[in-house]
Each structure stands twice: as C-alpha cells, then as structure tokens.
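Exercise: predict the structure of this protein bound to zinc ion.
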Amino acid sequence: MRLEKVQEVCLRRGIIFPSAEIYGSVAGFYEWGPIGFSIKKKFIEAWRDFFIKPYGFYEIEGSLVLPEKVFEASGHLKGFVDPITQCENCKTIHRADHLIEECTKMFVEGKSEEELTEIIREKGLKCPRCGGNLSEVRMFNLMLKTEISPVGGIPAYLRPETAQNIFTSFSRIFKAMRGKLPFGIAQIGKSFRNEISPRRFLIRLREFHQAEIEVFFDPDNPECPFFHEVEEKDIPLLTREAQKEGKEASMINVKEAVETGLIPNEWLGFFLAKEFEFYTKLGIPPECLRFRHMLPEETPHYSKGNFDLEIKFDFGWKEVVGNAYRTDYDLRRHSEFSKKDLSVDVNGKKVLPHVVEPSFGIDRTILAVLLFSFREKGYDRDWNWMKLPNFLAPFHAAVFPLVSKDGLPEKAREIFEVLKKELEVFYDEKGSIGKRYARADEIGIPACVTIDYQTMEDETVTIRDRDTKQQKRVKIEKLVEEIRKIISY
Ligand SMILES: [Zn+2]
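Solution:
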C-alpha cells in the first residue's frame, strides 16, 4: 500500500517521524524533521497567499491553553465526545461507532450510548482483537485537560480547535482593526484531541495543525464581495440525495448551487470553489476530490450547512477541510456565558454577526500531497521519487560535484555559497552521482546542479530536471534564473 511506502520514506529520511521515539513514543504525536518542516512552512505560505492575503483577512496567534469557561460556552465540555466501549477480556478500548460501522456497515453517527449498546448486544459484536465481551458504551471527552497554578488548580484545556480564540477575541480585534462587516479573522496553529485510536499516520492525530478562517457578516447582507471570482466555477458536490441513493458526486455550478439554496450563502460557495482550485494545485486529481453535504444527523443543531472537502485515499474518502455556516451560535453563546455584548454596530443597528468557517487540516493535507506525488520505484526510474508541486519542494535545488576530487568539490562549494543567498539549496558530495540524484528525487527536489570537469574549463554546469530527467548545460551566471524557471512551473 502507498501509505506504508510513503511512511517508510518519511521515517528513513527524517521527514515526519514519531515523537519521543527513543522512549517508544505515544501514538498520535509526530515530529517534523528538517525536510518535513520545510514542506509544511511552504504549504502554510501558499495557503496564506491563496486564502488570506488577497481578501484582507486578519491573522492572529491565540493561546493553546484556554480556561474551562470557554469550552462550557462553546459546547465542547458537554458535546465534544466519542462513544467508547472496552473489551472485558483484553481491556482494549474501541470507538463504539467505528466498531459497529466496520462490522455491520450500519451508519450510527449521532446515536446515544444506550442505542449503541443495544446494537452491540443485538448484533452480538465482540472485541475484534480477542473475541471478548464488550462493555456498555459510554461517552469520552476528547479534550486534553490540564491545570493552571500550583494550588487550587484552575481547570483548563488544550484547545481542540483554533476557532475559539477567534470568537472570544472577536470584539477586541474588530475594534482594534476598525473593522467593518464582512470581517475575516484567520488562525494557523496547533490543536489537540485525545483521540481514542490515532491511526493512519497523519490522518488521525492527537496534536495537529489547523488553518481556520472565520468570516463574520451581517445576516441581512450575506453577499460575498469576492463571489464574482468563482461564480462561473463548477465543483464536485455530493448531495444528500446522491448519498442516500449511493451515487457519486457530480459537477455543479457554484452560482446555481447558491441560488437554489443547495449551498446556503455566497461565502460558503466562495470558499468551496477556492478550495477545489487550491487542492487541484496541490496535485490532488480532481476526480479524487469531492464536497460532501453532511447529513442532517452529522450536522450540529446550530449549523445551517456543513460541507466537508474529502479526498479519496487508498483507504477511503477522508475529510481534509470542514466548511460550516455556524450562524451566530458561537458569538451568542460567548455573549451569554461572559455577559459581554459581542454585537457590532452596523449603521446604527445592533448586529450579532453570522459566521462561515472553513477549517483546514494541514497534516492530513500534506499527507495527501505526499501520497499523490509519490512515484514508486519502476514507474519511470529505478528508485522512488516525489513529483511534489515545486512550490512545496523542501529545497529548490541540490548541488553536486560529479566526483569528490580534482578540485570539483571546492568549485561546487563555491557555487553552493552563491546560490544559498537567493535560493534554498542542498549540498551533497557522498556516493555515486546516480545515488545522489535518487536521494534528491526521493524528497522531491525539482533541480539538481552538477559540477563536472567541463565546469573547470568553461564555467558551465548541468541542470537536471526532476520530472523529465533531462539535463542541460548552462552558464553559472544564468544558474539562478534557470532554477527559478524550473520552480515556477
Ligand atoms: Zn479484547
């Protein structure tokens, strides 16, 4: 399977690997090594360029630890739970809903503890590990709890999403930035969930990176000023009807979908269209993308429309972006619990803004990019390689002396020092040149620069293109320009 192969590359090349490995590590926590971190940084920059900068949204960095009150108001304390059941024999804890879905193909989202217990009893389900009896189902809160202060600890939680900082700070940010509706606030940062069974590498993590945007708007004036950018676009939408009938997603025009009420407003339509474009740019084939309209039983009571962007992995469709029309739920709840008026003034009228939220899972998305760019040994060369989108490549170019003698390494170092000032480059002189090309290809470096005997005579080097394996000879003085050409495809 592709996932295991990519995971092996990630481990061996130190791209992404388990945290605290020398102590055996805990599931659901990963470290991003130099190559992985470089890819992630570039992904975040690309995301910012695509979703934030052109639209004048503001970005914040909120704290990771928040007091209990916040989650009482947000509903996480009560509602952010998963149903679990424990094997009475081997003591393994299972997600009750997943276990039922896997064993019976029944869809049980939104069912109560009692209902789930009944299904387990009725269907005679046993522990998949050892065949033991399963306990009654109970709800488990997914937030990671902590305590602040050494005496009489104040209960607090690691945030389970970045959104809550934005809602609790909305008023101050709106005033400070002299805001006007519609008003967008974004946050990129870590969130934490005490997942019962973290699995599939970066798909289900306990500590993960999110990028969220909250757009606040007047419900009496829900127009999106950028909607004209996307109104001609079609997106793959899996409607509720299609899901019931077991059909696939179909391409639907965004403007039409908003007009017919399938998508509840222009803001949501705008984000869905932008996301489809962005994920295609990341190298995910369009046929492996779809927006699934969440079924009524999966949709929170306050939401007026949830659409998940899902990617088709080898192991099934998985959500990578959650899109929700959260109405005024969050601001209203925080107003009630904090006793602060969070409404804003719109031409003398008091308005509690409504919110549309796209919420991106960065780790999952990068995993998808790695999986879809992975080319297995034998595809067109004798080694694995990554056809990464060049704007995400960990280095722009690698620099190699052909052999490590006759002054070639010195010349190569000299060129490396010059390139380093303008580009992100990697130097390697160990092993045969073929092996070095293979190592560079494996982490998706788009260009390899080789210094050979001819370089010493005429100040030219070869540039090899990762995708075509073609080499061409260029003057050293033109090198930066040539590499820029390759990485700007
Ligand atoms: Zn068991």
